[in-house]
Amino acid sequence: MAFMAFTNVSSSITMSKVMLFAPWSVKTFGDLGDTLGTDGRWLCIVSQMSSCLLMPSVFFVLGGPVLGGLIPSAFSQST
C-alpha cells in the first residue's frame, strides 16, 4: 500500500510540474495528453479515471469489513 501511495503522489507531482510548463491553452490532463495525439489523450484520461476509481476501492478493501473476510486474523475480536 505504501508503494501505491508513493506512486500516486509522485505521478501527481510529475504531472503538476509538466502542467506548469505547458502552454496556457492546456487546461486539463486530457489536453496535456493531446500533445501525443488522440491515443495520448485517451491514455491520460484512462489513467486518471482508473486512479480515481480504484483508489477508493483499495481503501475500502484494506480498511473496511472486506479485509476481515480476506484475512480472518487481521482484527482482534476483544476490545
Q: What key phrases describe this protein's structure?
A:
79 residues, mainly alpha, 4 helices
What are the secondary-structure elements, in order, as H or E? HHHH
Helix segment tally: 4
Mean pLDDT: 79
Per DSSP, what share of the residues sits in E-state strands of 2 or more residues? Answer: under 5%
> Main sheet, how many strands, which sense, barrel?
none
Question: What distance separates the N and C termini?
Answer: 26 Å
Gyration radius from CA atoms, angstroms: 18 Å
| Helical content (DSSP H or I, runs of 4+) | over 70%
Which descriptor suits the 3D outline?
elongated
E-strand count: 0
Low-confidence stretches: none
Keywords: Membrane, Transmembrane, Transmembrane helix
Transmembrane segments: 53-75
Quick recap:
This protein has four helices and no strands. It has helices at 2-21, 29-33, 38-63, 65-70.
Structural account:
The chain crosses the membrane at residues 53-75. Keywords: Membrane, Transmembrane, Transmembrane helix. By secondary structure, this protein is mainly α. The protein has a domain at 28-52. It has four helices and no strands. The chain has helices at 2-21, 29-33, 38-63, 65-70. The chain starts with a helix and ends in a 9-residue tail after the last helix. The mean pLDDT is 79.
